[in-house]
Amino acid sequence: MAKVYNASLIGKKESVVDEILLLNPHQTPLLNALGFSEAVTAVEHVWYEDEMFPDETVTTASALVDDTAIVVADVTPFRVGSVIKIGEELLYVSAINTGTKTLTVTRAYASTTAAAIANAAKVEFLFDEGTEGADARAARYKARVRKSNLTQIFTDSIEISGTAQAVAQYGIDNLYEYEKQKKQLELALQLEKALINGVSYESGQVRQMKGIRQFITTNVTNVGGAVTLAAINTLAQSIYDAGGFKQAGDYKIMVAAKQKIALSGTDSNKITLTRGENTRGQVVDKIVTDFGEFEIVLNQNLASDELFLFDSNRAKIRPLITREFSHTYLGTKGDYTTGQIIGEYTLELEQEKAHGRLKGLS
After folding, report:
1. 248 CB-contact burial (10 Å; exposed 0-12 / middle 13-18 / buried 19+)
2. DSSP β-ladder status, 356-361 and 220-225
3. What are phi and psi of 299, to 5 degrees?
4. What are the backbone dihedrals phi and psi of residue 297, each rounded to the nearest 5 degrees, phi first?
5. What is the C-alpha separation between 140 and 188, in angstroms, rounded?
6. How far apart are CA 227 and CA 216, in angstroms?
7. 232 — phi, psi (to 5°)?
8. What is the pLDDT of residues 131-185, one digit of tens each?
9. Is the dihedral of CA 178, 184, 189, 192 positive or negative?
């Protein structure tokens, strides 16, 4: 019969990932919603994202009915030969000045009616005009965009004195295991806070990951008032316009308690209480919008004046390879027993335009 002595356990690493995921979901709701994904292989995790050419922009200056120079915010949607639409008028692009962001156009194209163009008017790319018998059009290519995030170390130690082990602890059979469970919860909370609030930072051997708040920069609206269904719909439309709903997603609304209460009072016939479609069988609130039904995730680690609308299918919590949360028993040292829990993780948030945030909520 094999015998296992205390000394045999010293320095042996054991995974505690399953124990971390079984923690109270109300304390680590984002961690509970996403779980852990595949490991990364570098402390700066890099991924690449494809993005299509945009199909619209806005004017940055007004133009008279006969002006042929249209100044726009972005010329990348267009090339020579593009047919564009402003209001009810079609225009043909004959030249592009990328420095001044000016389109030279033929007005009233295809027998449409020319009209004065206001500042901030929508300029929509329709198509590139094709000509019978023409040579092949010059190709254009939009390079993939490099994205990255740093891994961050989360660690703490358990230390039990000989006296503490000897004294009877009411309701606690194993004091070391009890303290270990507490440390796991504390570290899970630290990871949860970093996933939301983290700011990318590196100094020597210290690394901090970028959190969701720092990632999302495009679809951010300062409401400056109470949360409304209209504000959420407008945010969802911004995500839709950026292509966020063009592939299957699992969108969730994440708020702190103050905004959860406010949401419940926005429109009672738009709030439902249903059984969540997940393995843990939780009861979840959902809100019905013009762009779909979104689960509401209550998360006290958010600011009280903000709301996130994010696609959980595009968010991944990834450990550094061989560095998932684990416990190592370090043995008896003097008159105490000690051990260490450590893990190293990063957040991968794909296509930040597919997510959004409301801030300044009262």
Report:
1. exposed
2. parallel
3. -140, 110
4. -105, 120
5. 46
6. 19
7. -70, -40
8. 888 888 888 877 788 999 999 999 999 998 888 777 756 555 678 888 888 899 9
9. negative
Encode 182-207: b = buried (16+ Cβ within 10 Å), e = exposed: ebbeebbbbbbebbbebebeeeeeeb
- Backbone φ/ψ region at 268: left (φ over 0), alpha (ψ -120 to 50), beta: alpha
Task: Say how far apart CA 211 and CA 96 lie, in whole Å.
Answer: 39
* pLDDT digits 0-9 by tens, 5-44: 455 557 677 888 877 776 666 689 999 889 999 999 999 9
271 closest CA partner among 249, 250, 297, 295: 295
- Looking at the DSSP assignment, which residues form a beta bridge with residue 15? 326
Q: How far apart are CA 172 and CA 175, in angstroms?
A: 6
Which tokens is 311 given? 């696609």
Cα–Cα dist 353/243, whole Å:
8
Q: Measuring CA to CA, which residue among 214, 189, 216, 188 is closest to residue 199?
A: 214
User: What is the pTM for the complete model shown?
Assistant: 0.79
Q: What span, in angstroms and rounded, lies between the C-alpha atoms of 288 and 266?
A: 12
- For 235, residues 6+ apart whose C-beta sits below 8 A from its C-beta are 219, 221, 309, 356, 357, 358
One-letter amino acid of 108:
A
Tokens matching residue 268:
């009672």
| Both tokens assigned to 329 | 């028993």
Q: Are strands 69-71 and 122-128 parallel, antiparallel or unpaired?
A: unpaired
Residue identified by tokens 């063009």 is: 246
Residue 360, helix vs strand vs coil: strand
How far is Cα 15 from Cα 354, in angstroms, rounded to an integer? 34
One-letter amino acid of 276:
G
CA-to-CA distance for 327 and 354, rounded, in angstroms? 37
Nearest to residue 118, comparing CAs of 161, 70, 79? 70
